[in-house]
């Protein structure tokens, strides 16, 4: 049983899916453990920080879930590669080779296109996969935007109260600024989320451009429509981030 409550099976030395000498077992474990930790523990969340509102706590949760997908793709790629290498090669060398290949595919620049090329032989199938991926992103962004809007409204009210308190002499400007840690955290979360969304958007643009030539024109149009929707949602989220930045730099509090 590991720290996340996941039962880890034990095999006699040199047995299991494939026999591994000590050196091979250490290499495989080194790659698999991060994958298990990400998939088994990250979902339980480390939301220990106390937020000023339920909206800010929800924004933190959604942002972390969205941003975690890139890191999960990296370690999960290594884990799956190692498993496949061991099953195919039936030895620890195959496992290690698979781990290295999986990690390279999951982490290297351009891996989005590499995954499509490896998993789908036909351009039309790749295009369908990209559409599914964009729709999943759009669903996540659609959930994030109204939460971000509520966070902005919460912080507008808070900044107004702090400015009144400063004007009345109840607190100093430094004290007021110290009470905006939640605003700063929300702003950082949105910045990270937007960075991930824009990076994925660029990869999806390139994937569609490369795989739309011989695909059904109707499918290519659907892909472009989903991309346009994602671009609009990114702009909406960026607008909320800009408002938070402006709130943080108001004369009295910022």
UniProtKB/TrEMBL annotation:
Any one cellular-component term (Gene Ontology)? outer membrane
- What organism does this protein naturally occur in? Methylococcus capsulatus (strain ATCC 33009 / NCIMB 11132 / Bath)
Keywords from the UniProt entry: Coiled coil, Membrane, Transmembrane, Transmembrane helix
Transmembrane regions: 27-48, 69-88, 94-113
This chain's protein is named Glycine zipper 2TM domain-containing protein
- InterPro entries this protein is in? Gly_zipper_2TM_dom
Q: Where is the Glycine zipper 2TM domain?
A: 73-114
Which residues are in coiled coils? Answer: 220-247
């Amino acid at each position: 049983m590991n720290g996340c409550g996941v039962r880890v099976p034990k095999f006699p030395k040199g047995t299991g899916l494939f026999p591994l000498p000590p050196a091979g077992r250490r290499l495989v474990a080194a790659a698999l453990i991060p994958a298990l930790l990400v998939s088994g523990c990250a979902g339980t969340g480390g939301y220990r920080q106390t937020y000023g509102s339920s909206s800010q706590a929800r924004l933190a949760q959604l942002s972390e879930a969205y941003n975690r997908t890139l890191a999960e793709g990296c370690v999960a790629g290594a884990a799956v590669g190692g498993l496949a290498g061991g099953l195919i090669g039936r030895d620890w060398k195959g496992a290690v080779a698979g781990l290295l290949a999986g990690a390279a595919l999951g982490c290297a620049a351009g891996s989005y296109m590499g995954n499509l090329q490896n998993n789908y032989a036909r351009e039309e199938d790749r295009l369908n996969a990209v559409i599914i991926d964009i729709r999943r992103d759009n669903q996540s962004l659609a959930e994030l935007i109204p939460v971000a809007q509520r966070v902005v409204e919460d912080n507008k009210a808070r900044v107004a109260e702090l400015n009144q308190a400063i004007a009345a002499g109840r607190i100093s400007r430094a004290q007021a600024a110290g009470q905006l840690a939640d605003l700063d955290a929300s702003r950082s979360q949105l910045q990270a989320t937007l960075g991930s969304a824009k990076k994925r958007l660029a990869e999806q643009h390139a994937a569609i451009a490369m795989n739309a030539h011989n695909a059904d024109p109707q499918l290519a149009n659907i892909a472009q429509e989903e991309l346009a929707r994602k671009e609009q949602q990114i702009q909406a989220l960026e607008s909320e981030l800009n408002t938070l930045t402006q709130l943080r730099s108001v004369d009295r509090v910022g």
